[in-house]
Amino acid sequence: CSAIDWSDLFHQETVVYEESTPLCVVQVPTSPIPGQKTGTSGIRKRTREVTQTPNFFENWFQSLFDVLVERYGRTCLNRATLVVGGDGREGNQAALRTLLRIAAANSLQRLIVLGPDAIATTPAISAAIRAAGALGGIALTASHNPGGVDGDWGVKYNMENGGPAPDSFTSLIYERTLTISRYLEVEASDPEALCGRDGFDGVNFKRIQTVHRFRILPEGARDALQSPNPDRLPHSDGGRTFEIHLVDATATYVELMEGIFHFERLRALLRLPNFNMVYDAMYGSTGPFAFMIFGEKLGYWEYPWFRRGQYLPDFGGVHPEPNLENLADLVAEFFSDEDSPDFGAASDADGDRYLILGRKFVVQPSDSLAIMLDYALRPDFAAYCRFDGGLIRGVARSMPTSSAVDVVASRHNIRCYETPTGWKYFCNLLDAGLVSLCGEESCGAGGAHIREKDGLWAILFWLSILAYHNLQVAPGSKSTSVEDIVRAHWAHYGRNYYERWDFHGIERTTAERWMRNLERSVEGGEILSLRIDGPQLYAADVFHYQDPVDGSWARNQGVRLFFSSDRRMRAVLRLSGTSSADATLRVYLEKYVAPNDGDVQAVGELASSFVADIGRAALLYCGIVSELGRERPDLRA
Ligand code: G6P
Ligand code: ZN
Q: Is 477 in the active site?
């Protein structure tokens, strides 16, 4: 932990307010709240549960600070910066105000609130942590989960590299929440002062480029002040300061994108006659970022391209996950016989996920990763998109993601890492320079520029692929569409037919017990002796992962069933780590067809017909029908 000079990172002139009423640190008794446990990506809870449980925010933030003090020491915190931002969902404003009181009381020197209104995408938070040399950051988000009072709320902590905290760190916070007995917060030292209970009432979170500087008296000062002998005030020289910096969230992020992609070429693409694009922000936090990139920077105003761009605390009742069901209107527009747009993209509420659409075509995220790798490896693509030093060091995908990217990697002698689900598992590989590109079936992709997946980055990547093909086209010749790009990829590398089946609303303890039994049957080999009609099981295992950088283990990360000796026909089963209440079971189905496996035309078929037999077999082998009583999935993605 070192003090850094960050002051001119955010360029513009700042207005500084010195708050005159000192704040006192007070200790408030509390007791543990069960279940404040981090899942795949932070804590996810029902909004109601969070807002109606007294001290929910206080307990978790205090536990976080206790762990920070333990790890870095109080002196370090006293010189440290943390960043906070979020997707703007219901509950975030209350959480932010609690965070200010707790951070001020726990010796933090500076909190950068990204904004306005603490609204920033998860990738922008990661970028800001890195740009500011901060100790870490707090993302107030439940990502793609629904918002509003009846929706979900979430929070996660990111480390100094900008990436989600590893299991070893989040488990310390969780342990702390189980024993917590007090939290520290600040109150006005003079009860008569107009400063208000939390002292932060005067902070206008809409007004970026301002700094508020508060004087914090040491712990115990309040009692000393009220004692008959106020001379005994500890450190009567005034204690320390706590600063709140309200910083424009878009500037650092957009600058980062300009350094990676060739904006002039993208501008030329968007200016091509008949090239129409649509972007759907699903009322999440990407609105201002997309507006600045596509509108202000790339000058794209012609087509009604910007959909649901305004952020709303309940996302307008929309489920802000970019899938075919939630984007039904947009998808219908792309599949209509009218002149549908050429390129469509959408992001989830916090902007780390993406989906790409072409005319009458949807790009499967696992295919998207493979295609990105293929282009990243083309030397002449470097003029459109820069990778760290122009070198692709390696690639990583989460285990349930299809092995389409492995096919490209092995063809080019690039190492492909297979990690558990969750972006945090990529971060060590990125930090160690082992990989330059990562991606997941769950609509995530990203590079080494930050330590989160990055929806707008992936969208700019795809626009760069289109620019690569279409800027040099001779007049009169046909342009290359999104569909052409994907089909050319399948024709060259073969196709990994892929589908995910989700089973929602399973009672959590039932689901967990069933999963433990399944793992036992797989590790004990019993599952291999079952006989069912349909594809026969060739091998099965439980996925355990050892991080190649720090040697840590993540065990029981899903069950894999292989239906062929080459492992190219498989089903993966795992419980979602992002649901807020009941459990969701995910079954991922995959079958590879090589381009020379007979008729290349077959490579154009619908994935569902190709993988249905593996899906049915997985349901029977794993007792999804007999033990969980589920015959068919609630969602196929
Ligand atoms: C979050 C993580 C991703 C992960 C996804 C899986 O979005 O950031 O890295 O792939 O969750 O979600 P699930 O619901 O399948 O656990
Ligand atoms: Zn997200």
A: no
